[in-house]
Write a structure and sequence with these properties.
This is Outer membrane lipoprotein carrier protein LolA. This protein has helices at 2-37, 113-116, and strands spanning 42-52, 57-68, 71-76, 79-83, 87-92, 97-102, 124-134, 137-146, 154-162, 168-175, 180-190, 210-213. It is an alpha+beta fold. The chain has one domain: outer membrane lipoprotein receptor (LolB), chain A. The chain is globular and about 55 Å long.
Amino acid sequence: MKNIIIGLLVLGFTFYANAQNNKEAENLVQDILSKVKSYDNISIEFAYTLENLNENIKQETRGDVSIEGDKYLLNLMGTTRVFDGKKIYTIIPEDEEVIISNYNDQDENEITPSKMLTFFEEGYTYEMDIVQNYKGRKIQFIKLIPNPGSNEDIDEILLGVDQQTLHLHTLIQVQENGTKTLIQVKSFKKNQPLSVKHFEFNEEQYKDYYINRLD
């Protein structure tokens, strides 16, 4: 009988500790989202790694992105992608081609860089994970657990957050097939004096390119 009582006490404490842990993680996520949404614009430089040991794949590159509301300008893997609020312009210098398409704001599957900073707002439960030291900064990791029936191909997502600034520092996504995506922020700047034309596409600059209008 004594062992049963002790066991129940342990289970009760574990449940309470987990509930407290989840609440702490949820509060931290809300603080992160509030911080991101408070900025007029954000400019990020990042390192990107895609790895699958089973398929002997490892791809490493760097990129940068500027975000203002829903508008963005992304440079990654030799391609520039611009969204001016209405159309998406994908500029591919290697092929001398520009692809122009409409943005469908009703399409929940349409992922944009601006959504990448807030995608974890819904559809997940949260757990506090480890704290790591990175060049004198403490990075708090939060584990994102997809709600049942959503993101079934994702095994695990970890967000690393700078405890001092509450800025995102690391994103780790592991899929069920073993593919691991790592994004590490190298520079995070807010409220930069961006030109009014920063998110505009000037077709005159690409006269020698093939313009592929999808819509």
